[in-house]
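Q: How would the structure tokens look for this protein?
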Amino acid sequence: MAEALEIRVGTVENVDRVRERLSFEFGFLAQQGFSVQLQEERHGDTTLFTCRLQGAAPGPAGEVDCGEMLRHHLANALSDLIVNEWERSLLTYLIRSQYECFTRGEQKAIFTAASRNLNCRPDGRPDLLRKIDRKGRVLKLILDYLGSQQELNLDGFITFRLRDYRDQLNDAVGRAVDDFLMEKEYLEFVNLLRQFVEAQEPKLKLVHAVVQPKGAFKLIDDRGAVVTNENLAESFVDIDSEVNTEDLFVSALITLAPERVVLHCPTELDRIESLETIRAVFEDRLTTCRGCHLCRDERKAVSPVPQRFPGKKRPGH
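A: Here is the predicted structure in token form.
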């Protein structure tokens, strides 16, 4: 029988989860005929696990390398613990230490977004391969370390040996903060527009906002007449003709501040940014229609021409 090998693993955090995960890993080895022992002792704040493995009787494939077997199973267990247990506390620490200016509720939202950055595709769908890739990189570093060391302090290893991994977490947090600030700024902007609309006298009782198949638009009043440049000229004296059609669409509706807006929009264009802004600003004043003659007429349009308004260039554009 091969000589026994032992490796010690120390930790301050997540002691119960480390014990549970190592016991599971050693139970798996015991089922394969290996002699295994897991001992636990306390040294101050640190719990030290002694992991001992001795090979089973040689089989048809010959003698098993106990050292390689123990290192591989320990690396598998510890890398799994790091990405499933320590990762959450690492993200929380990074957020609370670097972004104290945010409230706990805002920090929680940033944590959720950072986790999504780490584990999801850009469209928000879960991507298990991202976590598997992180675990694989951590596993390799643990294997390399155990190739020359027989004692591993988990907390210290994470702090000093997993800098690339921690940088990856920090990057996910940074992107989450940027997105959070952009969303916060957008919501403040929408709230300002909403207050502006509510404060001014409506210029029209009803406006049909017709979004055409290629994203162009036109505005029609309650008599069926297209709203012309003359209706809006005074409000666009500071806007340049280069401002995109979506900006003008929002600006025109904000300027008119109608009592009611009926949005006629093809389903495939539902998520364009300008429409989300209009919905957020007008809220209860807005309804969506997809089946009237205006909707059908615009679906038949072959080459819709965007409605544009004259003016000067807006600062910052």
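Confidence is low (pLDDT under 50) at residues 233-243, 301-317.

DSSP finds ten helices and eight strands in the chain.

Upvote if useful.
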